[in-house]
Amino acid sequence: MRASVLPRRALRPALLALSLSLACTAHAQSRSATELDAVKVTGERTHTDTGALGDRPVRDTPFAISVIGREDIEKRQVVSLGEAFLTDPSVVTQVSAYASGWSSPIRNRGIDLSYDSYRVNGLQVSSWGTEWPLEVMEQVELLKGPGGFMYGFGQPGGIINYVTKKPTDTPTFSAQLGWREQGIVSGQVDAGGRFGNEQMFGYRFNAYQEKGETFNGGEVDRKVGALSLDARLSDTVTWTFDGVFQQRDLGEESPQYYFIGLTELPRPIAGDVNNAIPGTFYDTRSSLLSTALHWQINTDWKASLSYGYTSSWNDVNKIFAYIDDVNGDYDINAYELGGKSEWKLAQAIVQGRFQTGPLSHQLVAGVSHQTGLGWDRPYEWNTIGRGNLYQRPTVRHDAVGSHELTRGSETIQQAVFLSDTVDFGHGWSLLAGARYNDFENKGSYHTYPVTPTYAVMYKPADEVTLYTSYVESLEAGSRVGSDYINAGDVLDPTISKQFEIGAKIEYPRWNANAAAFRLERGANIDRLTSAGKLLVQDGITLYEGVEVSGNVLLSDAFSLGGGVTWLDPTYDKLSPDSITQQGNRTAGAARWNGVVHADYNVQQIEGLSLYALARYYGDVYYDAENTLKLPDYTLVNAGVGYRMQANGHPVTWRASVENLANKKYWSNAGIGLPRTFAVSVRFDL
Description:
This protein is mostly beta strands. 5% of the residues lie in helices and 58% in strands.
């Protein structure tokens, strides 16, 4: 029986009002308030480490890159990756907050990212059923499109790279408390600084925990620890270490809903309806350990040698609800599984600048070796009863499956990569690069692709970059799932190709980004036969689109931003066996997505700031046959922040609400989020 130890739904308005009243009281009593930072319209970090392209300003890369910084994460009290990229119209969440999802938390430009599309400080990590903790990250970067040249294998939707918090040159210490409905409390400690002879050693330590009852009746218990160290061994050599560990236990989460054979949707239910099955859970453990040496050879050249180990473990007893009629009736399917994966990566990179006559070169060269091991336990799939969306289930399911693990997969990836950006003068430059991959999935296939990239860039001014680029990426073949008659088969790897034309503009008071792209990717098609359903590779999925976004500082106190993405995603070049899907819109991809957001520092109340955001999600087809459509919807979020001084120390209060109108809707993630309140207070000492 679940213990009720935290505030219930009836306390939501009271807690929100209490938090705001305390903030206002503190403002009245404090001797002085500290002014909020000026509204910013540019990213908090202008450089990104783009793998084989090296470290360079985001503005000077010939690919669309979205960066979400620490300040934005804290302002909006973000707890999931999809929420972090809410201001990017090309990104759609696949997993609601406090749910395990299945393979990937987000979709970009109409394409799911896969479990191998995620990095922490450039090291591959798993996102299977979980997300990496944003609370210990300085920023999150999304490289849009195929990332094969920059990072190696991965789905062409993009590469997510989390950047951990680093040691600070001046001492820092903060503590934060938070509450999120239905009754989740959280706490965090963040400390950093330097010590030793001539401040030789640096550290950054973070500890975080959240625990309680989720908005739909589940239970969450998440613990996070992170440590970052460095040592300045000399004026030119620095040693670094990073460690991250997360334990995430979800109990009695909402079922994952699927529609079976429907051409009309059931009426959506509120996101806080509790349809959980007692006894179910999804528990994960994620860890990362990495170390590196960085050598600043001279003002033009630097080199690095790094090694990292990452692991992921899960234990699952999850419910899949197969809705088969418009009245909301469904089969209750219990899926028990579990496993473990490990990656080990060693990499050496050298990058620098040199001249050949009138030409200036920026060269990046490197080698890497990565191994991946996977273990699986026997899975159990059972239909345990029937349910209905609009009635609380009465069944229970406790795990009965074996926990014995056996080796499931082994991959070895060795790579050599080289890129050269040649500056011809007068603002023109040319990028050419290639990565040679020796990739072996033992027992399945062994391949040796070369994935190139080319780009032409023109800078009419330092603040402007115009570019056109071409990139290829190798995508590892997926293992066919249990609901196909060819379950367990490993599909062949495929090559994705992307052409992109874009512009990046970054001035002090406004910025803008625009990109037009065409991406071709091998298609996986459901093929119905007399014996059952097969998953086969057939034809391509074609994604053509345009995305535009920008921000403008209208006054010193008010900024306005927004963006829109148009996408034409279709199946093409299919064989006669799949010809009925030729030209159909790809499943889960909307033609239109848009967002508008605003920030305002209230001049009449020093330290008070407001923000609001409206996000439009276009309609999507649920299936490749385009027989069932999920309608479009718009969500509105808002929040308030107040920064003050208490006994000489900064204190920041925040309150926010998601889905302000409490809209009921179906999304790619299943049941939509309900109206959700969150409050927090942070003390900086």
